[in-house]
Amino acid sequence: MADWTPSPRQHERLAVRRRLDARSTAVAAVATIVTLGVLGLLIVGSPGWPRVQETFFSGYHAKQSFPTILEGFWTNVKMFLVAEPLILVLGMLIAVTRSTTSAALFPLRALAVVYTDLFRGVPTILLVFLACFGIPALQLQGVTNSFFWLGVSALVVSYAAYVAEVFRAGIESVHPSQLASADALGLAHGQAMRHVVLPQAVRRVVPPLLNDFVSLQKDTALVASVGVVEALLAARDYANFNFNYTPYLVTAVLFVALTVPLARFTDWLGRRYARRERAGAR
Amino acid sequence: MSQPLPGPLLRVENLRKAYGSKVVLRDIDLVVDRHEVVCLIGASGSGKSTLLRCLDLLETVDDGSVFLDGEEITDPAVDARRVRRRMGLVFQAYNLFPHMSVLDNVTLAPRKVHGAGRAEAEADARELLGRFGLADKADEHPDRLSGGQQQRAAVARAMATGPELLLLDEVTSALDPELVGEVLDLLRDLAAAGTTLLLATHEMAFAREVASTVCFLDGGTILEQGPPAQVLVDPAHERTRQFLRRVL
User: Fold this and answer.
1) Inter-helix orientation angle A246-278/A49-56, to 10°
2) Average pLDDT in the B156-173 region?
3) Mind listing the pLDDT tens digit for each residue in A215-224?
4) Structural domains of chain A, with CATH
5) CA A152 from chain center: how many Å?
6) Quick check: ipTM above 0.85?
7) B1-86+164-248 — its CATH code?
8) How far A178 CA lies from chain B's nearest CA (Å)?
């Protein structure tokens, strides 16, 4: 390409393109400033603003409540980290069970259908109540009475039902010709599932799966309802004691700080798969 | 390979296949001998693909029988996997596994179905890919390959387990003329090496040159079959003549 110098016409075109780009940037900047400015004025100019600023945006209370909330938030993170792999495994098992064809597995298939129907239908907070208050009441030998673990199992049971459906959608999205190819090669159903269908299915459902996980991260706060001290309960405790709601905002910021990296990670993962399989082709 | 038994490798008797009330194949009688190349020709929708899918047990037949080495494989009690291990099927749209390298595509069946070790399977696969002119593509994913390369990789995948019979379903129909040539050259080599081939094709020149038997399918039946010099040059049926006039 060393022997090529842009023609005068190309120089003109580049100049026009630069001018158009600069104009777009300027328009976007002005529009953003105006929108934010109007929104800011509306909020700050409202009659109740000084009061709201004091009760929700107090720097003093943010600093005071932060250590306890962070400690509580660590409980949320632990719940989430324990629940997530269990949900993936259970959800995958249910989805694969539903895709089996063997006659001997009919009872398991039926059970999988009932499971998803049932646990997707019950509100998660109800499951938390049932697990935390119902299971200890049974007085079973060797079953934990810890609300942390009972709460986690309620989240696992509920989210596995959703995740199973996500996996099943992925499995069904793999074109039948792929399964025909696997059959023609003499692969057994299980082998075709393991080597051909699932790898393609899982890749396709990573974004919706991550969406469910963002939702799960937030729903760990539901376990506060049975008295497990996590971020929300710590914030509520501080707020009720000090008549200031800033801790709720601190909690919200912490949850956002946890979910945004997960979203970026999803994007990165999607790009990596696309690069490997499509190699730049569109 | 199993001990060659007397009698044909594949025999089809009175085969019938229908989707609902639409009859796709009827009264199909066909014999494929070892080391023979049989071409199925006919317009799109004449039943060529369905016939191949029935033979590989991807479809269940509605009547009639298929015998492989004298064993009836259309018996519902027959283990379809055991039958498919002896055949290879190549699809018009290649159907390679997009998430695996070409090498993994080719070694999957030898390793998982035939129990070969990874090293052994990969050495065999590289040798096979080299023979098919794909030595430098073994570690690429299928999407990096041209259509002709993908189809050759698909043939390699089907051949990797040493099938006694290779079924090919219009394997050049999705390719441009130049790529058609490279795939047909490969099939010519396989035929010359004694591979038994049963292929649905629109490549009349290829059928004439390589086939021992040509079958003309029309509306789900084999209207006419015989050596290419007869069916393609001096057909008995007016319908065959019509078809040939249009494609030649």
Assistant:
1) 70
2) 92
3) 998 899 998 8
4) 61-278 (1.10.3720.10)
5) 16
6) yes
7) 3.40.50.300
8) 6
